[in-house]
């Protein structure tokens, strides 16, 4: 049941003919609609942001279920999983929060600290109302009385959302007023416990668990944190039903997901793809050969071109290799670049983005980064490789959050996939012809307490 | 019920007292931070384990139920 990826503006319009008339109200749990296999579902088909009038014309008003938990069964049948990276079953998260004693808080997470990912920002620009529908429906499903949207501290984006919320208030769509909270531009700002702290008025720093955020999150209340794409998917499932949702994707991993694509020719963007689409198709590897493919972002893993060529964008394919679809980052490293140089830049960035709260991460990541840089610069001694291995083992699973684990996963995949390059570098050579940096690294590492607020 | 030692790595500042008291269960890494064995605390060490928990200057060490 795999349909190709691609954002086709004309396809969307064609698919809607005869199904949704302007002004018509879509019934909940509709049977499979014609056009269910047409993408994009989430992003606006016109390419322009879908304003409220456009949103209502295409999707109709959101349909409250009339009580807590009532949407959860549909979400379970749909098989929706979290699109923030962990792919945790959404219905289980909703149930876990609804089961708590206190009145829950719901937070839509659009902080997207991952520099290689643009999909949440793109979605918030393109389809703010699908996200905001999902936020209200998730709040209803868990019985929340307080909802927030957590997003990039980008004035234009914040104004865009403020204006969307004002339009919804005028139209009487939202039952709960949504509070906007901005995230600092830090890699870890979107980590659940950091988010809970920030939304509660503190710094966006990860904290020790237990208690978990779903039990004890924002201001101590049980807190549901869902990625903004997950919420938008929920907004669609609530209207069109589980069978429609499952019309693309695989049996085990249904639906579409947003991906941030970087082709080896330097072009790219955000595209919605059916889960199970071949990676080679998404990255056009036939036309733009790659030295390696990064999947899942900077806590993700490198794949060799051969691996990438036979795998699809799905956890079923990627997890056996220690990789994951994550938040949909796919980057094809051009053949003229050095994977070790790129990886050393990323690991240095990750080391600087450590919150610095846990001893092993604070001490280990900068040392790992420095040794990897020696290797990348062809100045390493045999001791460097031993050091990297030892320090990697020392930081793994010893942090309050998964930052050291994700960093080590990325690093180990680099050493495995670029093993020939390691040998060359140790002999003082490098096969790359271009020193031009490829993967995006934001400028400015945190230097002060305020950088985390 | 068998219990395990766990450390809150945010609170831990690497005093190393726990590793001195309980070398059977706790080593230190090259920066002085505890590496826990991860195994249930045997009966004969429970008293020492409780003392390590109580004496931790950063209140970072705890005994938790083994899951």
Series of secondary-structure elements of chain B, N-terminal to C-terminal = EHEEHE
* Average residue pLDDT of chain A: 92
Oligomer: heterodimer
Query: How many beta-strand segments of chain A?
Result: 9
Could you tell me the CATH topology label of chain B. Answer: Alpha-Beta Plaits
Total count of domains of chain A: 3
Give a quick precis of the structure:
The complex is a heterodimer of chains A (453) and B (67). With 453 residues, chain A is of the alpha/beta class. Helix content of chain A is 40%, strand content 12%.
How would you describe what is shown here?
The complex is a heterodimer of chains A (453) and B (67). Chain A has 453 residues and is of the alpha/beta class. Chain A folds into 3 domains: 9-245, 3-Layer(aba) Sandwich (Rossmann fold), CATH 3.40.50; 256-334, Ubiquitin-like (UB roll) (Roll), CATH 3.10.20.600; 339-444, de novo design (two linked rop proteins) (Up-down Bundle). Chain A has helices spanning 9-16, 52-59, 72-78, 90-98, 119-126, 128-142, 155-171, 192-199, 228-245, 279-282, 305-310, 315-318, 339-352, 359-376, 382-395, 403-417, 419-426, and strands at 105-110, 146-152, 178-183, 223-227, 256-262, 268-274, 290-295, 301-303, 329-334. In chain A, the strands form 2 sheets. A 5-stranded mixed sheet of chain A has the order 6-5-9-7-8. In chain A, a hairpin with a 5-residue loop joins β7 and β8. In chain A, α3 (72-78) crosses α9 and α13 packs antiparallel against α14. Chain A starts with 8 loop residues before the first helix and ends in a 27-residue tail after the last helix. Residues 1-32 of chain A have low confidence and may be disordered. In chain B, β2 (26-28) and β3 form a beta hairpin. In chain B, 22% of the residues lie in helices and 24% in strands. By secondary structure, chain B is α+β, with helices and mostly antiparallel strands. Chain B contains 2 helices and 4 strands, in the order βαββαβ. Chain B is globular and about 30 Å long. Classes of the chains: A alpha/beta (453), B alpha+beta (67). The A-B interface holds A 207-208, 357-361, 363-364, 394, 398-400 and B 8-14, 29-33, 35.
């Amino acid at each position: 049941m795999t349909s190709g990826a691609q954002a086709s503006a004309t396809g969307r319009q064609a698919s809607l003919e005869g199904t949704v008339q302007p002004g018509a109200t879509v019934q909940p749990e509709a049977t499979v609609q014609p056009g269910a296999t047409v993408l994009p579902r989430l992003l606006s088909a016109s390419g322009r942001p879908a304003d409220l009038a456009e949103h209502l014309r295409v999707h109709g008003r959101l349909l409250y279920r009339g009580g807590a938990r009532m949407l959860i069964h549909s979400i379970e049948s749909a098989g929706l999983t979290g699109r923030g990276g962990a792919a945790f079953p959404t219905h289980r998260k909703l149930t876990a929060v609804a089961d708590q004693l206190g009145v829950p808080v719901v937070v839509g997470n659009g902080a997207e600290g991952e520099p290689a990912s643009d999909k949440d920002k793109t979605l918030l620009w393109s389809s703010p109302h699908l996200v905001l529908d999902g936020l209200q429906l998730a709040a209803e499903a868990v019985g929340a009385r307080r909802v927030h949207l957590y997003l990039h501290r980008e004035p234009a984006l914040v104004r865009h959302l403020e204006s969307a919320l004002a339009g919804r208030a005028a139209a009487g769509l939202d039952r709960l007023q949504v509070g906007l909270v901005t995230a600092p531009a830090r890699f870890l700002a979107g980590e659940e416990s950091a988010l809970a702290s920030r939304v509660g008025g503190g710094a966006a720093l990860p904290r020790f668990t237990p208690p978990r955020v779903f039990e004890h999150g924002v201001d101590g209340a049980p807190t549901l944190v869902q990625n903004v794409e997950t919420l938008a998917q929920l907004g669609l499932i609530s209207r069109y039903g589980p069978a429609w949702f499952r019309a693309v994707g695989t049996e085990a991993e249904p639906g579409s997901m947003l991906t941030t694509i970087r082709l080896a020719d330097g072009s790219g963007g955000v595209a919605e793809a059916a889960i199970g689409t071949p990676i080679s198709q998404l990255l056009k590897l036939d036309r733009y050969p790659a030295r390696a493919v990064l999947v899942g972002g900077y806590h993700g893993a490198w794949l060799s071109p051969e691996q990438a060529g036979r795998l699809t964008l799905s956890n079923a394919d990627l997890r056996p290799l220690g990789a994951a679809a994550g938040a949909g980052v796919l980057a094809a490293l051009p053949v003229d670049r050095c994977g070790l140089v790129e990886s050393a830049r990323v690991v240095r960035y990750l080391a600087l983005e450590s919150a610095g709260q846990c001893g092993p991460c604070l001490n280990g990541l900068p040392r790992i980064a420095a040794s990897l840089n020696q290797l990348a610069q062809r100045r390493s001694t045999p001791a460097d490789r031993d050091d990297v291995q030892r320090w990697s083992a020392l930081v793994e699973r010893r942090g309050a959050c998964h930052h050291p684990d994700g960093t080590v996963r990325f690093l180990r995949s680099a050493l495995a996939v670029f093993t020939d390059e390691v040998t060359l570098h140790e002999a003082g050579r490098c096969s790359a012809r271009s020193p031009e940096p490829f993967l995006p690294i934001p400028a400015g590492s945190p230097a002060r307490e305020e950088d985390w607020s | 019920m068998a219990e395990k030692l766990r450390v809150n790595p945010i609170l831990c500042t690497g005093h190393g007292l726990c590793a001195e008291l309980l070398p059977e269960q706790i080593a230190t890494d090259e920066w002085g931070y505890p590496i826990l064995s991860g195994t249930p605390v045997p009966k004969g060490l429970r008293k020492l384990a409780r003392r390590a928990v109580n004496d931790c200057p950063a209140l970072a060490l705890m005994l938790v139920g083994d899951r």
